[in-house]
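for the writeup, i need someone to sanity check this before i put it in the appendix. the sequnce is what the collaborator sent (i think, or maybe the updated version? ugh). structure was predicted straight from it, no edits. if anything looks off just tell me and ill rerun, i have time this weekend
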Amino acid sequence: MSKASELRSQDDAGLAKELQDLLKAQFSVRMQAATQQLTNTSQIKKTRRDIARVRTLQREAQLKKA
């Protein structure tokens, strides 16, 4: 799930869970890259952008509350 429109429909807890899942996925992808097991190197960039997308939406929600 990486579309911003899908992520906007989630609450704070849902976004936090999504961020945790993405951070675990990023670690896994980085380890695969380090051990020469990663075949699709674009996965690193995609995961990093998904993390940034979730953090941006969390920040927007935080600013709305303030």
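DSSP finds three helices and no strands in the chain. Residues 16 and 52 are 13 Å apart (CA to CA).
thx in advance!!
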